Amino acid sequence: MKKLFAGILISGALFSLYGCQATQTKTAAAAPELNNDDLYEVVHEGRYYVFDDFDVYQEFLTVGETSYRKVFIGGGPHGETLVHGLRGKDKKKLSGIAGVEMFKGTLQAADDFYGEIRAEDGRLYVFDSLEDMKAMRQVGEAPYRYTVIGAGPQQQTVVYVLNSSNKKKQPTALMAKFKAHNKI
Question: Residue 65's domain spans which residues?
Answer without folding.
Answer: 33-112
